[in-house]
Amino acid sequence: MRLTRRRTILGILVFAALLEGALAFAVLNRDSDPIGVALPLHPVAGSFRPDDTKLEECSEQPCIEQAFGNVAYYQGPRTAMSRFDEFIAEGDPSCHRIAHAIGAASLVRYRGNVARTFAEGSSSCFSGYYHGVLERALVNVRSNDADRLGKVARGLCDDPDVLDSRWMAYQCFHGLGHGLMITTGYGLPTSLDACERIETYLDRTSCKGGVFMENISSSYGVTSQWVREDDPVYPCNAVDRNDKITCYGMVTSRILRVDGLDWENAAEICAGVEASFVKTCFRSLGRDISGQTHRDPAEIVELCAVTRSYDAEGACISAAAMDMTSNYTSGTQAAVLCETAGVALRGECYFSIGAVMGRFTDDVAQQVDDCRSISDGSEYVARCIEGTRIRGPLSVALAR
Predict the structure, then answer these.
(1) Is 231 strand, coil or helix?
(2) Three-class SS of residue 228?
(3) 3-class SS at 400?
(4) What is the total count of domains within the chain?
(5) pTM score, two decimals?
(6) Phi, psi of 228 (to 5 degrees)
(7) 157 and 59 both lie in a single domain
(8) Do residue 196 and residue 113 come from a single domain?
(9) What pLDDT is stored for residue 142 in this prediction?
(10) Residue 1 within a domain
(11) Is the pLDDT at 27 greater than 70, yes or no?
């Protein structure tokens, strides 16, 4: 039986998860780059203005975004995110854009103070709140100069409160990547050049991950010139070898947009990409399966079965577990997925949970406690703890 899902294609817009499997991308060959065309900014990203719109009055997406933005502006982001978490309980695929609106409005409330705004946010719905903060912070930078953009970008995320943990730093620099794309009118080369101006390798790659996530799955419905309808793998097959791993880490988001939610077809395409990046492509598929099923363990296991004949089921399940851990900022829900999967897949699954949870805190004792809290099995706890020890981009560490 073909396992093509019938759910709305809108889900594709939000299920690119915040794992660092989408982090280490490269600049395309500048000699052949077409010149980017400036595009109008979405109002949320560009210039949030509070008004008297109430959530109970809304039925359309723009109204809902404005209403949640108003809650954030007048009552604070914690109140807005609490109501938001109740609102999205049924897995509304529009949640990422709503979270963007809350982040943008919160930054206006706090008069551009990125650190304070970040501190009062949450990672709900793929950290859309953090993306909205950084997009709004960049919108007044009227420049396509990579040097200037890079300088501003560095300044937005260098506050000690933002850099307090690897998780928060990742959110900031990843959100910057989204913001750079929108600010430059989806100018991919310029955005990547700006990311290159960021000081550390990890933060640079976090920034590039946001750039390329925005390129493939635009927050505002824009179709980037850096994708091709007749080649859903592009631009992964056109970048330098050292940078392909990040592109392939999110490539199925593009494949599924172009070819529909045909999981078997996506698995077949992954099996046929460049040999060194096949596993990375299947991990991308697992992340997308998690998002599209609203992180339902049984459905994830069912859909990841399409990768079994390619010996990639472990990569699919473990990437879905990472997606769940990132989305909930907890390993509890992902552990249910690990237990639902076959016994042979569980060790890798718990290892991947640990790889994400290790970003939440740098306290080793807390990391150990977190792993012990999600499983009674000593073997799985040990694998989880092993995962927390990973440093650097997860895309590289988990791709081999």
Answers:
(1) strand
(2) strand
(3) coil
(4) 2
(5) 0.75
(6) -130, 130
(7) yes
(8) yes
(9) 65
(10) no
(11) no
Alpha-carbon distances of 8 from 14, 63, 302, 303, rounded to whole Å: 12, 21, 19, 16
Q: How far is CA 1 from the centre of its chain?
A: 31
**Which amino acid is residue 67, in one-letter code?**
A
Q: Residue 41 carries which DSSP code?
A: P
Domain that holds residue 64: 29-216
Does residue 21 belong to any structural domain of this protein? no
pLDDT tens-digit series, residues 266-282: 999 999 999 999 999 99
Place of tokens 């249910």: 336
How far apart (Å, rounded) are the C-alpha atoms in residues 150 and 153? 5
3-state secondary structure of 51: coil
In one-letter notation, the amino acid at residue 59 is S
Residues 281 and 152 both lie in one domain: no
**Residues constituting the chain:** 400
- DSSP characters for 285-307? HHHHHHHHTTT-HHHHHHHHGGG
Locate 316 and state its tokens.
């699919």
How does DSSP assign 69-117, residue by residue? HHHHHHH-HHHHHHHHHHHTTT--TTHHHHHHHHHHHHHHHTTT-HHHH
Domain-terminating residue out of 188, 216, 244: 216
Inside any domain, residue 223: no
Burial (0-12, 13-18, 19+ Cβ within 10 Å), 238? middle
Same domain, 193 and 316: no
User: Residue 230, SS3?
Assistant: coil
One domain, residues 189 and 327: no
pLDDT at 6 over 60: no
Q: Would residue 342 count as lying in a domain?
A: yes
Residues 209 and 322 in one domain: no
d(CA 276, CA 245): 9
**Spatial contact of 91 and 294, defined as CB atoms under 8 Å apart:** yes
One domain for residues 181 and 93: yes
Give me the mean pLDDT over the 141-166 stretch: 78
Verify that 284 and 371 share a domain, yes or no. Answer: yes
pLDDT tens sequence across 35-56: 333 333 343 444 689 999 999 9
